[in-house]
Structure formats: C-alpha cells, structure tokens
Amino acid sequence: MTRAAGKSGGPLSYPWGTLHRMDIVIRRAEPGEYAELGEITARAYLGDGLLDFGESDEYLGELRDVAKRAAAAEVLVAVANDRVIGGVTFVPAGGPMADIAREGEAEIRMLAVSPEARGRGTGEALVRACIDRARAVDGCVRVVLSTQRTMHTAHRIYERLGFARTPERDWNPIPHLADVMLLTYELTL
Q1: Could you give the domains of the chain?
Q2: How far apart are CA 155 and CA 63, in angstroms?
Q3: Model confidence at 181: pLDDT above 60
Q4: CA 2 to CA 78: how far, in whole Å?
Q5: What are 91's strand-pairing partners?
Q6: For the N-acetyltransferase domain, which residue ranges apply (predicted)?
Q7: Which end of the chain is less congested by CB atoms within 10 angstroms, N or C?
C-alpha cells in the first residue's frame, strides 16, 4: 500500500490526498533524509549513463544538493520499510527550480529511484503524487517536465499517465554542446 505520511508516520492532511500502491509511502522529504536522497539521485543518473561527464559532471552536485532543492521547491520521497527508495522535486509555480514551467504550470524534476527498488511502481507513484499535488495548486492547469532521450522507462510512465510530448518546448541545457537536447512532456489537468 502506498500512502502519504507525516513526520510521525501517520497520514498527512495534504489537500492533494493519499496514494495507494504496495508498501510505498510518498511524503515530503525530511532534512535527515536529504543526503540519502541525494546519493540515490546521483547514483541513478550515473548508473543510467545520464551525465555526459560522469563523475566530473557539474550537474552531479545539483543532484546531490537536496537541501537546496527543498529550500526552493517541494521534495517528495518514496519510502518502503522505513528506507528512502526514491524521490522527486515538485516545483509548484516557477521560482529558481523551474526550468521550463510557465505561468499556470507546475514542473517535475529529478525523478530518481534506487536501482534495487525499480520495477515496483515507485517512479509512477512519485509522478502521481506530483500530479495530485499540482491539482491542489490554485491556478495550476498543467504539469510539465524535461527528460533525456534515453530515459525510456520514465517516458513509458509519463505516457501511461497521460503526458504528451511537446517537441516545440525541447531545449538544450548546455548550449555549447549542440547534441544535448532535453525532451519535454506536459499533462493538462
């Protein structure tokens, strides 16, 4: 069973509700979990070959800096058996963590699941939590995200949940490297 939970482990009273799937709890990350989630995210990106410069990639520091993300957006974690197994950054409306969100849009960033927890619905549960959260944000009409071409499992999750490709919004985060292009998706709420 997946459920949203508060710091005490009990159900949250978030207006965006509760998720139910297997034994995974989706909730806001706590400061004591930031380092662990940062390592899960960094390992996932490194292990999947998503960083152009491997261990020396500048983005690796951003992936590990969960405290910075939590100060500017909402960081959600997936927990199973009292262990963090994944996380995502939900950007409700612009701000320093938004890459492509426009007015009336929320953005999903840095979705990662530990390798040993993959295939259990964790990634989908995290994306669903972001969708539910976006529905609770006043004036939010759409959820957007960027993804790499090789993130095929994530693409399947997005498409299964109703996201559509928006090639007109694809963008290059490293302009001096012409072959680095992020694909974009959106979900109208």
Answers
A1: 25-188 (3.40.630.30)
A2: 20
A3: yes
A4: 9
A5: 107
A6: 24-186
A7: N
